[in-house]
Amino acid sequence: MFQSQRMAQRSWGQDELHIQCIECGAKYPPDEVIYNCKKCGNILEVQYDLKEVSEKLKASDWKERPLSVWRYGELLPILDESKIVTLNEGGTSLYKCERLGAELGMKNLYVKNEGENPTGSFKDRGMTVGVTKALELKAKTVICASTGNTASSLAAYAAKAGLKCIVLIPAGKIALGKLAQSMMYGAKVIAVKGSFDDALSTVMEASAQLKVYLLNSINPFRLEGQKTAAFEICDQLGLNVPDKMILPVGNAGNISAYWKGFKEFRSLGIVSNLPNMIGIQAAGSPPIARAVKKKLKRIEPVKNPETVATAIRIGNPISWKKALNAIYESRGTAEIVSDEEIINAQKLLARKEGIFVEPASASSIAGLKKLAEAGQLDKNDVVVCVATGHGLKDPDIVVEVCEKPIEIEANLDSLNKVLGI
Ligand code: F0G
Question: How far is Cα 90 from Cα 108, in angstroms, rounded to an integer?
């Protein structure tokens, strides 16, 4: 449990913390429930007075706190620390992957294993902050659209906070483990006849008309929690940044959150460099990667997205502008991988490193393999791939693609026969 006495006392003034439009710069107070700029309609982000943050960090003991989302409390937009809703998120392993690295010709390959979070995905970093915000704003009901993981995470944190939770999922299109989680945590699960993109536009309308607090990644507070993974990676690399960060991209919030995190750490002088941000998308739903490959400043939404990586089966990502900024500003890139490459990468990661991830997460490894083979990476580059969600989330795909168990009679002869001994 996070102990608030470990964090420096904070009270944010109007100018020290605000919500800001990423396009026109219009500012809004942190207690306004707002998801799009009232002036130009663009998406928003949280901004701090970093000088103030720097002083607060200097006066604090943040470096002594355990690795976790709340280690970085001074860089999070929470006004009332007594309301923090936590299940001990963050503090996930950064594995050095020697065997996988040797296979792919990379000497400094790491995997950030976000499947270790309480509900098995990186979404928990965002929800500890987002649901705490919901309490601060006195919301009674929270809502999201989801390909599965956001729903599982929101359902768990809403349960912990005593809030009602509604999740909209694309009917028949989410992995079984994720559906089971949302159902067990007691959310109202609504299956929409349509895609994730349809479900998202429905919850956006609902949050404008009903008294429900929206916790998709268009909510700028949620992404503040997610940026802490970038801080942790810097900490785990001895206050260095990787050369390349490789992440799967769906609704495009996470890559944007990482980039914001790295930039804040650099602005504060905690690290001195920035990584190249590399986004990976599945061949059946690649609006951002396609735009990057064509060097475009806008995306063209993909109709009827389809991929085995159901978590990132998204044709019209809400945070596309932030993601393109992250990729272009960091001089990064994007890559498109096929379902076959994703499944091969999922097996490779499990069988070389003992890390079992869901298909969307494996897309970062598939992307790494493709870029390495194309000679776009230096073998000495420090590369971090983000494994965004645990493999047990999607057991159906495993049963489909792995060798089936061999059934035998319970005696040594039968065993010897199948082992060929
Ligand atoms: N990996 C996993 C396992 C995910 O669940 C998601 C997104 C992503 C990657 C992509 O992250 O959307 O920030 O670009 N899942 C969302 C959900 C859409 O509803 O669970 P993103």
Answer: 23
Tokens for 343? 């499944």
Is the Cβ–Cβ distance between 343 and 105 less than 8 Å?
no
| Residue whose C-alpha is closest to residue 77's, from 222, 271, 292, 276 | 222
> Ligand 1 centroid vs 370 CA: distance in angstroms?
21
Instruction: Report which protein residue has its CA nearest ligand 1's atom 10.
Output: 250
Query: How far apart, in whole angstroms, are the C-alpha atoms of residue 352 and residue 372?
Result: 17
Compute, in angstroms, the gap from residue 314 CA to the centroid of ligand 1.
9
| Ligand 1 pocket mutation, candidates 43, 111, 116, 150, criterion most atoms within 8 A of CB | 150
Q: Provide the token pair at 165.
A: 């939770």
Print pLDDT tens along the chain (421 aa).
344 444 444 567 667 899 999 999 999 999 999 999 999 999 999 999 999 999 999 999 999 999 999 999 999 999 888 999 999 999 999 999 999 999 999 999 999 999 999 999 999 999 999 999 999 999 999 999 999 999 999 999 999 999 999 999 999 999 999 999 999 999 999 999 999 999 999 999 999 998 999 999 999 999 999 999 999 999 999 999 999 999 999 999 999 999 999 999 999 999 999 999 999 999 999 999 999 999 999 999 999 999 999 999 999 999 999 999 999 999 999 999 999 999 999 999 999 999 999 999 999 999 999 999 999 999 999 999 999 999 999 999 999 999 999 999 999 999 999 999 8
Site to probe by mutation for ligand 1, drawn from 111, 121, 203 as the one with most ligand atoms within 8 Å of Cβ, is 121
Ligand 1 atom at minimum distance from 148 CA:
20
Task: From 375, 372, 376, select the one nearest 97 (Cα to Cα).
Answer: 372
Atom 4 in ligand 1: residue holding the nearest Cα:
311
Q: Give CA–CA dist 390/29, Å, rounded.
A: 36
Give 108's DSSP letter.
E
Give the CA count within 13 Å in the CB-facing half-sphere of 306.
1
The set of protein residues with a Cβ atom below 6 angstroms from ligand 1 is: 121, 146-150, 217, 248-254, 311-312, 358, 360-361, 388-389
Q: How far is it, in rounded angstroms, from Cα 77 to Cα 402?
A: 44
How remote is the CA of residue 8 from the centroid of ligand 1, in Å?
32
Q: Is the dihedral of CA 260, 204, 336, 102 positive or negative?
A: positive
For residue 269, CA distances in Å to 51, 53, 240, 320 come to 11, 12, 11, 28
Whose C-alpha lies nearest to ligand 1, atom 15? 311
